[in-house]
Amino acid sequence: DAGITQSPRHKVTETGTPVTLRCHQTENHRYMYWYRQDPGHGLRLIHYSYGVKDTDKGEVSDGYSVSRSKTEDFLLTLESATSSQTSVYFCATMTSGSSYEQYFGPGTRLTVT
Amino acid sequence: DAKTTQPPSMDCAEGRAANLPCNHSTISGNEYVYWYRQIHSQGPQYIIHGLKNNETNEMASLIITEDRKSSTLILPHATLRDTAVYYCIAYKGGSQGNLIFGKGTKLSVKP
Prior knowledge:
The structure holds two protein chains of two kinds. Chain A is mostly beta strands. Chain A is built from no helices and eleven strands.
């Protein structure tokens, strides 16, 4: 494992409130990713980062923003949570080598009521 | 990235080899075959990957056919802890990291 932790692990929030999920890694991996996993959809990429302050959109980025001010931390913010954002969120990291293996965190289960 | 096709479920007896097939008939020459697994409620776990040669590591072996249209993941001595959903992914690499996880194969290892 790449020493990836996610916080919180579980969260229930109300529609319209902002929510920030944190991903922390201890392996100094350059690349970091946020995915969401929903039944029937598999994992889908939300945003990714290829270095400090360098981020880009993934497949399902609407309603989400990210920030990476330090190598070890990658934050995912739901600007105004909606029920459709109820999901399990996984963070992943990847080294800058050529084998492109991704290492995943334990996930955050988010429920928007 | 090429689409992959896997059987939805398989059973395996504990201690026996588990052979998980994957079809990727449209794979392009620069796409690798990656295998991940996801044990219930946990994050996906990288297992192995290969381009055209067979590969082996401490977890599994990967056999890729010569035409690269299919592959087989082999868990040599399956244990109950290998019960998981196994995903076969064709991926050409790069930092964008958009792994396409399909439905995978639910492997049930039984005592």
